[in-house]
Design brief:
Helix content is 39%, strand content 17%. The protein is an alpha+beta fold. A four-stranded antiparallel β-sheet has the order 3-2-1-4. Helix 2 (27-36) packs antiparallel against helix 4 (59-72).
Length: 191
């Protein structure tokens, strides 16, 4: 956890109030809280407060929530990043069996995290220290919090489809590839 950047939560906005009601006074403690809640999909990813209600979140909802906290507290230097990367057995060992069973070296995945200057902050899992897949990143795009829903899924499907079209050695239909990807995410959720 990078502790050089911090701010006191002073806003009375919805997200800030949710943190303050849990006796979380600042950004560093908010990140620590978010890291400790389980990785799982939210019932309503369109309402970021569902992270508090469900006591869980994905990379998208967890980081979008923290981005909104920064916005409510006038901290524009906190950026929400969407990256496209090659998810493989080295950077995500838990999915090795799924990739192997489907004869894939990797599958394109999207991931969300925060950036402050050049510092990457990943609060997806309790043990997230740094991006294990930093060398496997294909692209990074700054997004707004509301873009972790439909925009993120459409972005992912677009690039996954383009990648599949360029893989002459693969004869997997797109829907089957998407189901393989879903199995990988399910495996991550069961950690």
């Amino acid at each position: 956890m990078v502790e050089t950047f911090n701010f006191i939560i002073t806003s009375t906005g919805k997200i800030s109030s949710n943190f303050l009601s849990r006796n979380i006074p600042d950004f560093v403690n908010a990140m620590a809280f978010i890291k400790q809640i389980p990785y799982a999909r939210n019932k309503n990813k369109y309402d970021l407060a569902s992270v508090f209600i469900d006591n869980c979140g994905t990379c998208g909802t967890k980081h979008a929530l923290l981005k909104e906290l920064a916005i409510e507290n006038s901290q524009p230097q906190v950026k929400l990043i969407l990256c496209l990367f090659k998810m493989n057995k080295h950077n995500t060992p838990v999915i090795s069996e799924i990739l192997s069973k489907n004869n894939l070296d990797y599958i394109l995945e999207v991931h969300s995290y925060l950036k402050i200057g050049s510092q990457v902050l990943d609060c997806t899992f309790p043990n997230s220290k740094s991006l294990l897949f930093i060398d496997d990143i294909i692209s990074e795009t700054e997004i707004e919090s509301h873009q972790i829903t439909d925009f993120k899924v459409n972005f992912h499907k677009k690039y996954l489809g383009q990648w599949l079209d360029n893989q002459s050695s693969l004869s997997i239909p797109f829907q089957e590839l998407w189901q393989i990807r879903e199995a990988c995410i399910e495996k991550l959720s069961s950690q």
